[in-house]
Every structure is written in C-alpha cells, then in structure tokens.
Fold this protein.
Amino acid sequence: MKNIKITRKITQGMYVLTTKEGGCIVDAVSQVSAGDEPLISVAVMKSNYTNELLKKHNKFAISVLSKDVNPEIIKTFGFNTSREINKFENIETTKIEEIDVINDGIGYMVCEIVDSIENDTHTLFIGKMIEADVFQEKEPMSYGYYQEHKEELLKVTTEKGKTAWICSVCGYIYYGEELPENFQCPICKVGKEYFKKQ
Ligand SMILES: Cc1cc2nc3c(=O)[nH]c(=O)nc-3n(C[C@H](O)[C@H](O)[C@H](O)COP(=O)(O)O)c2cc1C
C-alpha cells in the first residue's frame, strides 16, 4: 500500500462507547440505516475489555464528543482499560436505560445489539437505537481534528529525564530511551515506525 494514512481522511467522529461496567473511546461508528429505529454500527477491538462487556450486556450507548470536550475524558476512556480502573469514577455521567452516558458530550444514543460480525481483530456490533437525546448544540470533534490536535489536546509533556515516544496514530505515550524490539502500540496496534520521539 502506498499510503494507508488516506484512511484518516474518512470522515469519522470521536465518541465514548459505554456499556454496563465499562467503555472506551471509539471513532469507528456509523449509521447503517435511518427511520424511526435507526441502526448504528461500531467496530470494537477484540483485545478491548469493552468487547467482552458488550457481548455480556447486549446494549451500548454512544456519547458524541465536541471539539471542546474535557480531554481527560479521552485520556480516561482511550488510554486505560476497565480491567484495571473504574473509568466512571471522576467523569460525570447520567444513567440512561441502565447505561452511563457522558454529561460533557453533545448527546447520546442508546442501542440494543441486534447483530454482530467477527473478523480477525474486531467485532462489528450493530445496534437498534432505542433512546437518544441532544444535550447541547456544539460542533462535534472529528477524528481528523483529533489527529491534528492530539498533542495539544493531550498536553504531551516529557517528564524530566525521560524520553517520550508518541504514537502518531492514536496519541499513546511510551516512556523510555528506546522502543523495544517488535514494539506495538497497545492501543491501536501499529508498529514502532509510527512512533515519534519527543
Ligand atoms: C482516538 C482514539 C480512537 C479509538 N478508536 C477505537 C475504535 O474505533 N474501536 C476500538 O475498539 N478502540 C478504539 N480506540 C482504543 C480504545 O479506546 C482503547 O484501547 C481503550 O483503552 C480500551 O479500553 P477497554 O479495555 O476498557 O475496553 C481508540 C482510542 C483512541 C485514543
């Protein structure tokens, strides 16, 4: 492939995908059909704990993030796993249909999973929308905007005496003089060639 970065030009947004007990940041959301009960799809990595939770609870909420969302929400849900922390501890949420949605979001949609497709790395979950609301009229954050602004959004600072390597795909930071042999980003799985030294 000459340049896979063309995929970054597919217009996607930034969302918090939640279910009971956890959730994560996603950009791979799309509307499959319109009508009174639209279908929404979301692709979730099999290695994410959220994938396991979705298969257990069969329901999800998508909170749409705005350009001026508190970046702590992205850090908490995008760079941590609910296997280790309670992501809801310091983030304000409201329970809708038993699922926490993000108060700082533009709004939410809650869906019941009606279908799923497995591939090697991801499950594509398809949900029927059962509840939705708009909290505030703001400009949504696109995935392209996140890519262009992630360093300032995540306020990347190098800890004194430490070298930071930043994943140019998702923004994950690895601290260490050199990246280990065969290193892969734990978040988006790209190789070490995608990391930039700070
Ligand atoms: C900008 C950004 C976009 C992401 N998009 C997706 C996505 O579309 N699907 C996905 O499964 N993970 C995506 N992730 C990765 C998950 O949010 C991340 O792996 C998270 O830590 C998983 O948490 P969990 O183990 O609690 O599920 C994205 C992360 C970032 C920072």
